[in-house]
Amino acid sequence: MSNVTLSDGEVLLVASRGAEERHGLWSWSRGDHGWAGKQLATVTQLSSLARHPRLPVIYGTSRVGLEGAIHAWRIEGGRAATIGDKSSEGAEPCHLAVDPDGRLLIITNYTTSTLAIQNLAADGSFDGAIELIKLEGGGPETDRQDDAHPHQALFHDGTLFIVDLGADLLREFTLDPNARGAAALRAGPVTAVPAGSGPRHGVVLPDGRFALSGELGSNLLTGLPRSPVDSWADVPSTLRTGPAKTRHLRNYPGDIQRSLDGRRVYFANRGYDTISTFDVSGSTPRLMNELDSTVDWPQHLVVLNDHLLIAGWDSSKVVAMPLVDGVPDAAETLFACEGAGWLLVFRE
C-alpha cells in the first residue's frame, strides 16, 4: 500500500467530472485497509474547487455549455450542505479563488472572457448578484485566442493575478477593502508573455517570479510580473515528439504546481500523459526528469507532503508519485474515482 498519508481530520476532495449521477463532489480518506470514498454532491461537469480561507466552505465551478454554474458547500461531519448554487453569468467557468479576507469570490468565465465577482456573506454563502468585468485581448492562434480567455485567478501579496490564455497576459488587479462587487477590483498593469504560449495556470516562486504552463505553446515560462516579454525564460515542457497520446494530436499541457521549497515545479503534459519536473532555482528552468504519469490526461496536480498527487481524468483514477529531494519517482495508483479532474486537501 502507498505511504501517502493525510493528517488527522484531513480528507482529499475530488471533483469527479462528468454528466452522470455518479459525478460531482467526492470525499476520500485513508484507513487501515486503504482508501475509501463517498459522494457528497451530484454536479454536472464539476471542473474546479477552492476553499474559504477560514470557514469549512468549498466552492466549485461546473458545466461546459453557454451557461456555467458555481456552487458553495459547507462541509461538516463528513457531509456537504449546499449553501449556494447559481449561474456564473458566463460560459465555461474553469477556475475560482477567494480573496484572503473571505469576502469576494472571483470566477474565470473562460469562453465569454469575463471575471465574475460574487460577494460572500459572513457564513461563506453567496451575497447578492454576480457582477462581471469584461476582458479584452487576443493572440496569434486565432481559434483559441480570438479574445481574452481567463483561465486562472490567484491572490498573491494583496494582488489578484489573472492568467489569460487568450491574450497571452498575466493581468493584475488591486483590491479595495471598502468596496463590493466589481468596484472592489481596480485593473492594474498587464504583463505580456511570449506570443502563442496560451498561459493556463501559474505558481509563484520564492523570488517573486511566476512559473506558467503554456497550453498552446507546450512550454514552461518563468519571469517577473511587469518585466519585458523578452526577459521571460521559455523552455519546452516535454522531450516527447510527434502526435500526443490522449484526446488530441497536440500536447495541450494543463496544471503546474511547485515543490514546498519552491526549487522545483511539476508540469502536467496532458496529451503525452507525462509529468515533467524542472529546477527553477536558476534564471532558466532546467528539466530534471519526465515520467509517465500512468494516467490518461493528467488534469490536476497537488503536492501533499512528500508526494505529488495526480488526477487522471480520462483514466478515472488518482495516482501518487513519491518525491525524493523534490524529484518525482514512479507513480502508484491510490484509488479509482470516476472522471477525477480536480484535487483539494481539506480539513474542517
TrEMBL record:
<protein>
    <submittedName>
        <fullName>6-phosphogluconolactonase (Cycloisomerase 2 family)</fullName>
    </submittedName>
</protein>
<dbReference type="InterPro" id="IPR019405">
    <property type="entry name" value="Lactonase_7-beta_prop"/>
</dbReference>
<comment type="similarity">
    <text>Belongs to the cycloisomerase 2 family.</text>
</comment>
<dbReference type="InterPro" id="IPR015943">
    <property type="entry name" value="WD40/YVTN_repeat-like_dom_sf"/>
</dbReference>
<dbReference type="GO" id="GO:0016853">
    <property type="term" value="F:isomerase activity"/>
</dbReference>
<keyword id="KW-0119">Carbohydrate metabolism</keyword>
<dbReference type="InterPro" id="IPR050282">
    <property type="entry name" value="Cycloisomerase_2"/>
</dbReference>
<dbReference type="Pfam" id="PF10282">
    <property type="entry name" value="Lactonase"/>
</dbReference>
<dbReference type="GO" id="GO:0006006">
    <property type="term" value="P:glucose metabolic process"/>
</dbReference>
<keyword id="KW-0313">Glucose metabolism</keyword>
<keyword id="KW-0413">Isomerase</keyword>
<dbReference type="GO" id="GO:0017057">
    <property type="term" value="F:6-phosphogluconolactonase activity"/>
</dbReference>
